[in-house]
Amino acid sequence: MGESKITVSEELITELIEKALTMREHSYSPYSGFSVGAALLTEGGTIYGGCNIENAAYSVTICAERVAMTKAVSEGDFRFRAIAVVGGKEKTPDVYSFPCGACRQFMREFCDTGSFLVIVAKSAQDYEVYTLEELLPHSFGPEKLGW
User: Fold this and answer.
1) Residues with Cβ < 8 Å from 113, sequence gap 6 or more?
2) Bridge-partner residues for 84, per DSSP?
3) Which helix (H) or strand (E) holds 40?
4) β-bridge partners, 50
5) How do residues 14-31 score in pLDDT, each as one tens digit?
6) pTM of the model
7) Rounded distance, CA 87 to CA 82, Å?
8) Helix (H) or strand (E) holding 121
9) d(CA 18, CA 31)
10) Contacts 24+ apart (CB under 8 A), 141-144
11) What residues act catalytically?
12) Which CATH class is domain 3-133?
């Protein structure tokens, strides 16, 4: 974990991870058994939670990260600082669950890639922090369309 990346306090990181762990308990994942929770921090300090919601038609499954972000956007919140993601098949996460490619691209739409933090965690004490740029280098965003 590079200290220069951290623009949120350790206490706030812990709060985000704990919220993501709580959101994971609401996961609807009967097919994969892989439950994921996410907690999104806005620039204004609001935290939005999300969990993965599977569907028998797999292509319409939605990831926890996109649930949290769509909740925020639907409430008029478009500026984000960080997201914590926890997931796994076990009751206690035993792997780091990185956002999938679709979620990374979705984040790219609303986040500054150099400063938005993605926190992947197994627990509040066991986590790693990355910028979105590190997870999605050379990305395509609105500015490529002249926006």
Assistant:
1) 131, 132, 133, 136, 139, 141
2) 39, 119
3) strand 35-42
4) 38
5) 999 999 999 999 999 999
6) 0.92
7) 17
8) strand 117-121
9) 25
10) 141/108, 141/109, 141/113, 142/109
11) 65
12) alpha beta
From 141, 84, 86, select the one nearest 111 (Cα to Cα).
141
Instruction: Tell me the two tokens of residue 127.
Output: 């986590």
∠ Cα 75 80 85 (to 5°)? 100
Q: Which residue is associated with the tokens 């960080």?
A: 82
Q: What is the DSSP string of 83-113?
A: EEEEEESSSS--B--PPPHHHHHHHHHHS-T
Contact 39, 45 (CB under 8 A): no
- Give me 54's structure tokens: 């599977």
Tokens of 116: 């938005």
Distances (CA, A) of 19 to 60, 118, 124: 25, 14, 10
- Which residues touch 76 (CB under 8 Å, ≥6 apart)? none
For residue 34, give both structure tokens. 């892989």
Q: What is the pLDDT of residues 35-55, one digit of tens each?
A: 999 999 999 999 999 999 999
Residues of the chain below pLDDT 50: 1-3
Neighbouring residues of 71: CB distance < 8 A, sequence distance ≥ 6: 40, 48, 49, 50
